[in-house]
Amino acid sequence: MDNDGSATRILVVDDDAVACEFLQEALQISGYDVDYFTSAKETLKNGLAGYDLLLSDIRMPEMDGLEFLRQVRKARPGLPVILMTAFGSLETTMEALQEGAWDYISKPFSPEEIREMVRKVLDVRKLRQLRRQDVENTPKEPQFIGSSAAMVDFYKQIARVADSSASILISGESGTGKELTAHSLHQLSARREKPFLAVNCGAIPETLLESELFGFEKGAFTGADHAHQGLLEAAQGGTVFLDEITEMSPALQGKLLRFMQSGEVRRLGGHDTKHVAARVVAAANRDIEKEADAGRFRSDLLFRFVVHLRTPPLRAHREDIPQLIDSLLKKWGYANVRISDEALGLLMAYKWPGNVRELENVLRQTLLLSPFALLTPENLPEKLHPPSPVSERPLLSLLERAERQQIHDILESTSWNQSRAAQLLRIDRKTLHAKIIRYHLTGR
Ligand SMILES: Nc1ncnc2c1ncn2[C@@H]1O[C@H](COP(=O)(O)OP(=O)(O)OP(=O)(O)O)[C@@H](O)[C@H]1O
Ligand SMILES: [Mg+2]
Fold first, then answer.
1. Which ligand places an atom closest to the C-alpha of 355?
2. Mean pLDDT of all residues in the chain?
3. What CA–CA distances, in Å, run from 415 to 411, 418, 433, 443, 444?
4. Homologous superfamily in CATH for domain 149-310
């Protein structure tokens, strides 16, 4: 059901009527209204008004799915689209995602799989609508970009915990959007009208950090010639964001722990305590569990964080790179700049140790140094160029290199569990196996 109580309407387009009926049945069980067409042209003729989601085949006789997708985007830009493809290839997926598809599912799939996917896409749509309202309320709030499985999964985690009062720890590599996550958590919660106050624990000396957080009374220490409200008090009802929390001294960690347990704040040099209902969100760049194991971070404080969100590194969602680039170009007023396929191939194959922030920097630098309408590999910084090929392997196209890299990374992340990797890549095991051989991939 939608907010207004009417059923969610799904449109299915597949030239195979049996497939349409299968989908109709599978989705009606979940309470969706499902219509279908067996022709892309007929669908466009009938119009797309009133639908909340489109499920389309990618291979159809009179118009292929990508072309159809282009036309759909023109007619109804915001309509979420899931493409159904018999070829789980990265190439088609990337093209489809570039054309604005929200997700894709490889045939054959089970009724449960398609229901799960539909639910996921509708969740993200809801989140995006929420975010759009936020933007209207608070202009210039930076946005998450990306519709990869990894990011969609991350958005869902944010949406699930945003509105609780649980304290949240965000960890992840540098430049992966930890601060952005903290802002989103606040914006998506009922606290959004209340203050969001941030402090970087690594950037201020310890004594100052303590008085910043807890405040002080007049005469608390030399130079305290007036009383001062701390950040925790000031954030009453809102969110306190403690960035780089691993940089906090053990003594201050203890004080923070007591605040998180009791909700009580006592200013330095003061006697009275005040109850403060502020939600604590913290971010850590270093591996905070390792810091705790090494005794540098209090584990009781670590356990006090009820939810632990981990921002995905950019190399785990490379397929979002074209979209990220597009939106940065638009944001900076370079909407007319194009990136050649070869240059895009390099941008997608690079490891991005500095993640989205590094991508922003590379793009900014490139635009400054190469004020051209078309950016080619020569315009990109040296570090993006792979070392010259000295192998006996057949030369791979840039797209293939990107695919090889992604398969390699996923295999590494699953410790070469091929079934799991195939699942994550949404290809079948046989296809994965063939690609491992084709790309000469080997484990450690
Ligand atoms: N998924 C994303 N979509 C759009 N922009 C992103 C995304 N992730 C990060 N960014 C952008 O990248 C930059 C870095 O993000 P942010 O400051 O939130 O990262 P961080 O994890 O806090 O980094 P650090 O560890 O270096 O402090 C910001 O400009 C942010 O808007
Ligand atoms: Mg940060």
1. 1
2. 87
3. 6, 9, 15, 8, 9
4. P-loop containing nucleotide triphosphate hydrolases (3.40.50.300)
